[in-house]
Amino acid sequence: MSRSTLTAGENYLVYIVILNWNGLEDTSECLKSCRELTYSNFRIVVVDNASNGNEADELAARFSDIELIKLDSNLGYAGGNNAGIRHALNQGADSVWLLNNDTVVESSTLGALVHELYASDNVGCVGSKIYYFDRPDILWFAGGFVDRARGLAGHTGQNERDIGQHDVMKDVGYITGCSLLISREILTTVGMLDEDFFLLFEDTDFCSRVQMAGYFTRYVPESKLWHKVSRSIGNNSLRYEYYIYRNSLLFVEKLGLSTRSPICERVCMLIRGLIHDRSIRLAWSRTKGIYHYLIKRRGALV
Which segments constitute the Glycosyltransferase 2-like domain (predicted)? Predict the structure, then answer.
């Protein structure tokens, strides 16, 4: 039976996958907000990505209704979420919602996503309108755009005050992994997140694979949440810059496109950044990202 023959109100089993890495209080706040979801047919699996101390045990003690996976090592965003996805599919999930642990959701957030995901057969994954947690009326994400040839991706509406200018549902270049609902059909068709990325650009790559398989990636503005933004890595940190430079080139390569121009562009960017920021460490992280791409070093930065 096709998805389009099912009623929009029918309950599908959704597994919410939340990845925790040294974020006990943020994860707890996220889980508390999930308890208020009006869409009721869901289960939550928390994947602890080898946090320090006993965070996994503390989460289990605070939230007896969650399912918990404790990893022995940090597998990054891609590997950690894949562990949760595998568990969800083994438990019979109809869809999987990847949700950042440093978010707080609105009660209708999941229901809006489920409704749109199953409204037609050609939608592969859907995502939310996302605001900054500390600036609750300022947008962080209202759909994603991608320049595949240059290996660039960005957020529509970022840092804009929300006055309804992004309230139209639309198909977009990619959906951020901060809030990404994926059907079981898609996961069995295109596979899970590519662990070569480890962190950053894995969601862009995944959405590109969904689109190349003939499905849409759709932004659903009725689904809303608030994001504390990069608590685990930090925008413009040395690790962030390394992964952005390396993985953006890997993304272009996986599309079968030439990386010659993107490499030259990134070299120019790091030179301009060095002149502007006068940070040797930042320039070195970016240089190392390019170099590790060239020598095919994938996965975690070691």
Answer: 16-187
Does position 45 have pLDDT exceeding 90, yes or no?
A: yes
Handedness of CA 250, 142, 232, 86 (dihedral sign): negative
Per the CB < 8 A criterion, the answer to whether 19 and 27 are in contact is: no
Q: Are residues 143 and 206 in the same domain?
A: yes
What is the CA angle 175-296-199, rounded to 5? 30
Burial status of residue 185 (CB atoms within 10 A of its CB: 0-12, 13-18, 19 or more):
middle
The domain that holds 34 is classified in CATH as 3.90.550.60
pTM of structure: 0.94
Whether the predicted pLDDT of 235 surpasses 60: no
Neighbours of 41 (CB within 10 A): 12
DSSP 8-state secondary structure symbol assigned to residue 118: T
pLDDT digits (tens, 9 = 90+) for 12-23: 999 999 999 999
**Is residue 230 over pLDDT 90?**
no
Eight-state DSSP code of residue 158 = T
